[in-house]
Amino acid sequence: MTSAILDPTGIRDSNKEGLELAPRPGDLRAARIGLLENGKQNARLFLEDVAEILRERYGAGQVTLRRKHNIAQPAPAEIRDELVASSDVVVVGVGDCGSCSASAVLDGILFERHGKPAAVICSDAYRATADAMAEVQGADGYRYLTTPHPVAGLTPGQVHERAETVAAEVAALLGPEASRAAA
């Protein structure tokens, strides 16, 4: 018996098998950072801390934060389109449960397909759902980042520590080396 993975979002585009990553900037100096927050507790603080580190250490530019209103669904097209237009790279998170991890990965894939490099951050406890969504979308092996589970119950200081540990990985995933690694 074979098992099939069903896409709970129902938006699979059969014409978009595989995934070619969007071109990465040469570096993050002055790069406009889009943040897509999913509304989970501490997600906004975590992403804002990551963005601040990217600004301080890598010279990133302005930051645009948008929040989606349903953690289990991809961002609405108008939010995605706004971030595509106003950002050079996008950071998505935080996938801190099964459905929000899957939808975070889908958001990242959709940003890549719209020409924007994306770094998705999920809790390590939900790799299976994140990987399953990538597979359903024809993007097996889609690279996302993880942070220890949970993020929701952390203090602001603990959230900042987590952001500190993942920021360099975010910069690397959004940089030119990521394009070569995916080829």
What do these coordinates show?
The chain is 43% helix and 14% strand. It has helices at residues 43-58, 77-86, 98-113, 127-136, 156-174, 176-182; strands at 33-37, 63-67, 89-95, 118-123, 145-147. A five-stranded parallel sheet has the order 2-1-3-4-5, sandwiched between helices. Strand 4 (118-123), helix 4 and strand 5 form a beta-alpha-beta unit. The longest helix is centred in the C-terminal third of the chain and has 19 residues, at 156-174.
Oligomeric nature of the chains: single chain
Beta percentage is 5-15%
**Average pLDDT for all residues:** 90
Determine the structural class based on helices, strands and strand pairing. Answer: alpha/beta
**Tally the helices: what do you get?**
6
- Supply the CATH class: Alpha Beta
Name given to the CATH architecture:
3-Layer(aba) Sandwich
Secondary structure tally: strands: 5
Order of helical and strand elements: EHEHEHEHEHH
Number of domains in the coordinates?
Answer: 1
CATH topology category name: Rossmann fold
| Largest sheet: number of strands, sense, barrel closure | 5 strands, parallel
Low-confidence stretches: 179-183
The coarse silhouette is globular
- Based on CA atoms alone, the radius of gyration comes out at 15 Å
Name the CATH superfamily classification.
Glycerate kinase, domain 1
Cross-sheet strand order for the largest sheet: 2-1-3-4-5
